[in-house]
Write a structure and sequence with these properties.
Blueprint: H1 12-16, H2 23-34, E1 40-46, E2 56-57, H3 61-68, E3 74-77, E4 83-84, E5 88-95, H4 103-126, E6 131-134, H5 145-154, E7 159-160, H6 163-169, H7 179-185, H8 190-200, E8 208-210, H9 217-227, E9 233-236, H10 246-259, E10 266-270, H11 275-281, E11 287-290, H12 292-295, E12 303-309, E13 312-313, E14 324-328, E15 334-338, E16 348-349, E17 352-356, E18 359-360, H13 366-380
Parallel strand pairs: 6-7, 6-11, 8-9, 9-10, 10-11
Antiparallel strand pairs: 1-5, 1-12, 2-4, 3-5, 3-17, 12-13, 14-15, 14-16, 17-18
Length: 391
Amino acid sequence: MTDESGFDIVPPEAIREGRATDAYFDRTVETLEHADRNPRVVAEVTADQFPTGEWELLAGVTDAARLLEGRAVDVDAMREGRLFDGGPVMRIEGPYLEFCRLETALLGFLSHATGVATAALEARRAAPDSTVLSFGSRHVHPSIGAMVERSALIGGLDGISNVAAGEVVGREAGGTMPHALVICFGRGQQEAAWRAFDEAVGEDVPRIALTDTYSDEVDESLRAAEAVDALDSVRIDTTASRRGDFEHIVREVRWTLDAEGFDDVGIFVSGGLGPTELRDLREYVEGFGVGGHVSNADPVDFALDIVEVDGELAAKRGKLTGKKAVYRTDDGGHHVALADREGPEGGERLLQPLIRDGERVRDFDLDAAVDRAAEDADAVGFEAPVGDSED
């Protein structure tokens, strides 16, 4: 029966217990237990077997570790915030029945977070000197808001908007005003809305006025600058159907504010933005709110494959057999090799111990992951694909 008292959310205890699984894993457990068979296996989580030139930013390792700890397994994984291009990002060794039912949730944790983090890094690299905030949690199921915001931060975004997610990840959410606030004061009363906001909110909240609710963006931006002392910025969030040449609108707002003596008032832009728009507009604005490009990112198509069984090489057709190592070289190269063979000269092994005998052996530091992603992006020359945008 459906639980009518709650939301359509799989509870954390069901995930930890392996009940958030595909049914055929239940059948697998039944069969292996019936046959009294539980081989020791090496399994690897991989998106692409070989490097393809398309880099992705690993995230979701924190949740994956919480899922696997307490099981009789050893796990090696890349650190969150590392870029990868082919080869495994995680390796699990142990009796197969220890983690058989966990595969579905494990891949979900890694696949979705990695897709979001990669999209966030694309936005970050498209406007490296601008403030870029995550505005996309309204586009996804609220139960995964914290995953979206944490992954966005790993990708280098400067802030988040989801209050509850901020409590989970230890970052304070930020934001100013929606159109609804301006509308509540009525048509023609935009100044009253902007002044009320200025008087009501704490001193630490930026004074950013939304200036496209009823009138022309240039008109409302100038009126806001005149109405609010020490206005930090105006925000333009014009509906796509009314934008026309959006770059020209933004440039006109900037020109008019400067001409009228408000050159200290910045411009913040949001709504339907991806890397292309950020590149086009970054010359004229101080900040962006990026939504669906990040939160709606396609999950990375990870798979988990057994590559050794009881010490013998094993893999299905189309997969590379044997335990592997992954290396980063000083020139930014990404190399995949058999783990028992010598790697490239000077190569750094990217798969590092995460769990030993069921105990997690390394800590997670969000700030360190953010720094690692930025450094790795520089090292490998990561850039967002040209022409990629939310729309």
